């Protein structure tokens, strides 16, 4: 499985494209808002000959959903989220203008992600892990064969997701990290929603929030 990342919008949010040798591809957390950001993503898709088959959100804070409607319209794919984050998504249309995102267009999901099920594209299967705490319906996607996790805003390099937003809970987040992520092999690479990638082993050793 190949992981391609883009950093978009004023929140420096990481958008991920996952693709394999079949050229099928899924988009995770499209934060592309302005025309240049949208073109950066679509140009890559075209140059690589990728076929977008799914659009998913790890969670639905504004910086992770700004490009949902654009991706859905451009590639004719429906949005998939965890049902517990539907209120988080619906709230974005209310507060997005106060952050300067006056052109945000709401897109609601057509189906929901569930822990224990698999998210499939091409020859690839991703495990869905339910990891609330930063957001009520946060999920991460784990590809065991390549030891890679698309982690959203749960675990960062030497840090963790904030819990002071509506629906956030510090104790719940720590529990999610310890029971869902820290049970994975130390060599697993974590691709977070902001900042550089890290590994499970590195965060077990050095993350000051988790000692």
From TrEMBL:
InterPro entries: MBL_Glyoxalase_II, Metallo-B-lactamas, RibonucZ/Hydroxyglut_hydro. Residues 12-194 form the Metallo-beta-lactamase domain. Coiled coil: none annotated. SUPFAM superfamilies: Metallo-hydrolase/oxidoreductase. Keywords: Hydrolase, Metal-binding, Zinc. SMART domains: Lactamase_B. One of its GO terms (molecular function) is metal ion binding. Its cofactor is Zn(2+). PANTHER family: HYDROXYACYLGLUTATHIONE HYDROLASE GLOC. This is MBL fold hydrolase. It comes from Adhaeribacter arboris. The lineage of its organism: Bacteria, Pseudomonadati, Bacteroidota, Cytophagia, Cytophagales.
């Amino acid at each position: 499985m190949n992981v391609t990342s883009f950093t978009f919008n004023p929140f420096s949010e990481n958008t991920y494209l996952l693709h394999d040798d079949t050229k099928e591809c899924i988009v995770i957390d499209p934060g592309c808002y302005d025309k240049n950001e949208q073109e950066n993503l679509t140009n890559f898709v075209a140059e690589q000959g990728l076929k977008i088959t799914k659009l998913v959100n790890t969670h639905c804070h504004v910086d992770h959903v700004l490009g949902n409607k654009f991706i859905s319209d451009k590639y004719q794919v429906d949005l998939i989220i965890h049902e517990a984050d539907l209120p988080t998504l619906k709230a974005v249309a209310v507060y997005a203008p106060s952050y300067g995102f006056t052109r945000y267009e709401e897109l609601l999901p057509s189906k929901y992600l569930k822990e224990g099920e698999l998210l499939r594209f091409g020859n690839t299967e991703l495990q869905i892990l339910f990891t609330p705490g930063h957001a009520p319906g946060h999920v991460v996607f784990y590809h065991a064969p390549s030891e890679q996790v698309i982690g959203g805003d749960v675990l960062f390099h030497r840090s963790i997701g904030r819990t002071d937003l509506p629906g956030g809970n510090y104790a719940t987040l720590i529990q999610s990290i310890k029971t869902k992520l820290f049970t994975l092999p130390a060599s697993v690479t974590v691709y977070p929603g902001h900042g550089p990638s890290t590994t499970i082993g590195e965060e077990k050793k050095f993350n000051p929030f988790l000692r």
